[in-house]
Write a structure and sequence with these properties.
One of its GO terms (biological process) is cysteine metabolic process. With 409 residues, this protein is of the alpha/beta class. The protein has two domains: 135 residues, Aspartate Aminotransferase, domain 1 (Alpha-Beta Complex); 259 residues, Type I PLP-dependent aspartate aminotransferase-like (Major domain) (Aspartate Aminotransferase, domain 2, 3-Layer(aba) Sandwich), CATH 3.40.640. 39% of the residues lie in helices and 18% in strands. Helix 1 packs antiparallel against helix 9 and helix 2 crosses helix 9. The two termini are 41 Å apart. It binds 4'-deoxy-4'-aminopyridoxal-5'-phosphate. 4'-deoxy-4'-aminopyridoxal-5'-phosphate binds next to helix 3.
Length: 409
């Protein structure tokens, strides 16, 4: 897409004497000038604490912060800004639901359903919640020896019993590149009375999201994976659900009245945001929403899916490669994971770095999934709006060089 790379200052550098090819976007995306400028502007002109001040800077900071909440609401199609809670990111958003809704509502005999492709951030909180509450965690199985078949929807139907109180699933797998049919999964869960939590860490920055059309009850996002700053993210929750929840973090900012004997809480969203929030982060996240929408998320989605498709096809030409996730021709995101026979993923990433490539090697916070697929690690190339098909040429050439080197050992 034209004019995009110019907006990202970090991309215009050399690494090890080669032009940087940044293909580690599933870990974190780069930031456009507009987001960097929004942060600088905030700290240079508006920095102040929110909600508690009557002076000009405090009012500007409050307007910026609350404006950011409304912007994020609009970005994901929420009906009301009070349905957006600012968090540190997807992990904290999931933990918030587990610690508030989960602790209040789960009993022995209840079931939380997740899937075999969950990131640790949408798995471990449910394991811990199940341990603490006596509820059971069940997982929807994944089909195919390389996970190419996606979630087993027939198995899902039999797992979705009235005992299921929550179905938590990822929208896009950070390892396989699978795009789950979120609206369909939410509808199935709703039919048995279960709530849904969608982990949108890997989708929010790359494709349009509309929580009302999707029909989810909770949705979690991370700012840093959608061209925004680190340390900021959001939890969307349907208003009537959030209003019933008791906060798990207490302190300043979230209280209506306090006496030496106790306290009462402000309405949602404030009562879930104890202490001074990440004001600059929220403002930077709103700038990221503006930027992504100025490019157009439909365009970004089409571009990233096309790069994922090309990468999958080109990589499948390499000898001894094992590619994970949806097969050639199937719909996939811009995330492609693979294992090279006889070369450890850490060696691939280290050698590729010599060619200026930023890849990721490891279990990608998907240890049980790796185990299921009989792997300990993979190499992952993940694309964003600023990547080009020419960078896939660099990737393939680098991998050929690596294979040649290791074949000679
Ligand atoms: N879920 C998925 C699918 C992810 O890819 C990630 C980040 N790798 C997370 C959750 C956790 O996000 P964060 O580290 O920003 O909390």
């Amino acid at each position: 897409m034209r004019g995009i790379r110019e907006a990202f200052p970090i991309l215009h550098q050399s690494v090890n004497g080669k032009p940087l090819v940044y293909l580690d976007n599933a870990a974190t995306t780069q930031k456009p000038r507009a987001v960097i400028d929004a942060l600088v502007h905030y700290y240079e002109r508006d920095n102040s604490n929110v909600h508690r001040g009557l002076h000009a800077l405090s009012m500007r900071a409050t307007d910026g912060y609350e404006g950011a909440r409304a912007r994020v609401a609009r970005f994901i199609g929420a009906a009301d800004p009070c349905e957006i809670l600012f968090t540190r990111g997807t992990t904290e958003s999931v933990n918030l639901v587990a610690q508030t809704w989960g602790r209040a509502n789960l009993r022995p005999g209840d079931v939380v359903l997740a899937t075999e492709m969950e990131h640790h951030g949408n798995l471990v909180p449910w394991q811990e919640l199940a341990r603490a509450s006596g509820a059971t965690l069940r997982l929807v199985p994944l089909l195919g020896e390389n996970g190419e078949g996606g979630l087993d929807l027939a198995a899902l139907d039999s797992l979705l019993t009235p005992q299921v109180k929550l179905f938590a699933f990822t929208h896009v797998s950070n390892t396989l590149g699978t795009i789950n049919p979120a609206a369909q999964l939410c509808a199935k869960a709703r039919a048995v009375g279960a709530l849904t939590l969608v982990d949108a860490a890997q989708s929010a920055g790359h494709q349009p999201i509309d929580v009302q059309a999707m029909g989810c009850d909770f949705l979690a996002i991370s700012g840093h994976k959608m061209c925004g700053p680190t340390g900021i993210g959001a939890l969307y929750g349907r208003r009537e659900l959030l209003e019933k929840l008791v906060p798990y973090e207490t302190g300043g900012g979230m209280v209506a009245t306090v006496s030496y004997d106790g306290a009462t809480w402000k309405p949602t969203p404030e009562r879930f945001e104890a202490g001074t929030p990440n004001i600059a982060g929220a403002i930077g996240l709103a700038a990221a929403c503006d930027y992504l929408d100025s490019v157009g998320r439909e365009h970004i989605a089409a571009h990233c899916h096309e790069l994922g498709r090309i990468a999958y096809e080109r990589l499948s030409e390499l000898p001894g490669i094992r590619l994970l996730g949806p097969a050639a021709g199937a719909e996939r995101s811009g995330i492609v994971s693979f294992a090279l026979a006889d070369v450890h993923a850490h060696d691939v990433v280290t050698f590729a770095d010599e060619d200026g490539l930023a890849l990721r090697g490891g279990h990608h916070c998907n240890q049980p999934l790796m185990h299921k697929l009989g792997l300990t690690s993979t190499t992952r190339a993940s694309f964003a709006l600023y990547n080009t098909a020419g960078e896939i040429d660099t990737l393939v050439a680098s991998l050929r060089r690596i294979q040649k080197f290791f074949a000679g050992q």
